[in-house]
Amino acid sequence: xxxxxxxxxxxxxxxxxxxxxxxxxxxxxxxxxxxxxxxxxxxxxxxxxxxxxxxxxxxxxxxxxxxxxxxxxxxxxxxxxxxxxxxxxxxxxxxxxxxxxxxxxxxxxxxxxxxxxxxxxxxxxxxxxxxxxxxxxxxxxxxxxxxxxxxxxxxxxxxxxxxxxxxxxxxxxxxxxxxxxxxxxxxxxxxxxxxxxxxxxxxxxxxxxxxxxxxxxxxxxxxxxxxxxxxxxxxxxxxxxxxxxxxxxxxxxxxxxxxxxxxxxxxxxxxxxxxxxxxxxxxxxxxxxxxxxxxxxxxxxxxxxxxxxxxxxxxxxxxxxxxxxxxxxxxxxxxxxxxxxxxxxxxxxxxxxxxxxxxxxxxxxxxxxxxxxxx
Amino acid sequence: xxxxxxxxxxxxxxxxxxxxxxxxxxxxxxxxxxxxxxxxxxxxxxxxxxxxxxxxxxxxxxxxxxxxxxxxxxxxxxxxxxxxxxxxxxxxxxxxxxxxxxxxxxxxxxxxxxxxxxxxxxxxxxxxxxxxxxxxxxxxxxxxxxxxxxxxxxxxxxxxxxxxxxxxxxxxxxxxxxxxxxxxxxxxxxxxxxxxxxxxxxxxxxxxxxxxxxxxxxxxxxxxxxxxxxxxxxxxxxxxxxxxxxxxxxxxxxxxxxxxxxxxxxxxxxxxxxxxxxxxxxxxxxxxxxxxxxxxxxxxxxxxxxxxx
Lengths: 375, 309
What we know:
The complex is a heterodimer.
Chain A: H1 2-24, H2 26-46, E1 54-60, H3 65-75, E2 80-84, H4 92-97, E3 103-107, H5 111-118, E4 123-127, H6 132-153, H7 177-208, H8 210-216, H9 221-250, H10 259-283, H11 287-304, H12 317-323, H13 327-341, H14 345-369
Parallel strand pairs in A: 1-2, 1-3
Antiparallel strand pairs in A: 3-4
Chain B: E1 5-14, E2 17-27, E3 32-36, H1 43-50, E4 58-63, E5 66-67, H2 72-76, E6 79-82, H3 94-104, H4 113-120, H5 136-148, E7 154-157, H6 166-181, E8 185-190, E9 201-206, E10 209-214, H7 216-221, E11 227-231, H8 235-244, E12 248-254, E13 257-262, H9 269-278, E14 285-288, H10 293-302
Parallel strand pairs in B: 3-8, 3-9, 6-7, 7-8
Antiparallel strand pairs in B: 1-2, 1-4, 4-5, 9-10, 11-13, 11-14, 12-13
Helix pairs in contact in B: 3-5, 4-5
């Protein structure tokens, strides 16, 4: 009994030392706690896919009540700012070249009449193709506003039928990109903090020679591993909570599903990332290599292949297959489903199981590879 | 009394490199034992086998009466190990380092303060300084305190004086002598031959083979060839010319002069002086000199080590 007590004392001392490391190095502490906040604010404010203050030129060759009403409707939506009313379509191109415009629309002559008579009229939307993403979003949004308006004007729907509306409006209605970024960001930060930091902190002990002394000490290998993991587990959990809080308080991102489920799934994902970090550190003895593997081998795939930025469905098949082994891909599905769709566990057990299996395999492999002696 | 360390036929290879070949060695309890050898001689490998971090490919090592392979846990709790680089946490303070190593060895600084007071008291003024900002000598003292904090029966020190200034080296050996008086067996490796005289017994390791195991006096007595201390204005050319002398056994720089050993049983200083004068060397002085332990090591190093012989 006494022995067990004393062993736990050395274990507690070990965990305490890990916390000292984390808080002693101000840069590390700043990265650990500042990064989630900064990244969230960056993604939330700066890197937006949504559109704001689109500079719009209206070239109305028709000047009838319909074309003017459509223009008013666009300008009153709050998204567009009138940036000129050129008389002829030929005057539009120079405006784009000067950068004075994001978008121009041209009503064909007799727009209103043709719409009344033929049920069909042409409205040209011109955007700056050098920024295809923004361009597509603006086009789609304009088409939607116009379509909505014409649909409302003739409740029977006969009037709006003639206007082609591009089916791009599958975006979330308010075009809030932050909704999509928050889950991805959670995956990214947890991956970074958990895998990168654990793998570096273990390899640092190997590099400095302190691992030799630890191995000779009373600590069991399992205690060394767990002692390394506990602090980052707690930190990652704090990060999850702060991301969800900022997302909801600053950006109004809802969590429609169960908060408890979200936290439990996040804890599971943290475990997966931590076991990845341990696994990396059993493969190498150098901090540099561990960092390279964590950044190149984990971070990039997490950003590019998890569905964070590019949807998995639109990837080529080989990349889709690779994306299956990326833990963040499954976590992302889970978080998006819980936060945005309010899904319950009954819809997510498959993804959860994938993460559980991944964690078990990685931990098993690490414990097998972690030696009580030097190689 | 049972020896603290008994090594029988220990061999170890890393891939194709033979690090140790058939080492037999025994260290008595309470002894201050020196393991002398150049870099790559196998000192670190041997010490790692003794502190159970490496398994020998062949042979058997017994530490404090326990088998290094089967009973490694019993060994680990009874030894103090100081790896080659001072393995301290550089971002932690002096005190935090000591406390940490005390807790992971299941003890507290207070319990064994008696033992380390002598060493640690010199560090107390810098208690809150980070270990990374200490000088080499102070790091060495802290690392020794950390290795001692759980009152081990056996200390295994891997090159503790490498990269440390001369004064600190001298102080360090004085500390080891005091620890020995407290009954702790100490095995210390070093590449500095002059440190051999501070040990009770030394072993000379070269390319994985033990070339001599004896007291410092015994090792010195191994050197029987006549020895001359020679100096001249052009030291480098002096060595070249001496080595070219037909009866030369060896010639090597030794402090400010050159030590010359002859192959014959008798050699006169006048003969060598005449030879060097004929080669045009000036400001010559040639005098017989009593061989020291370093001369023996230099001579031993001429003998080829390696496992294949």
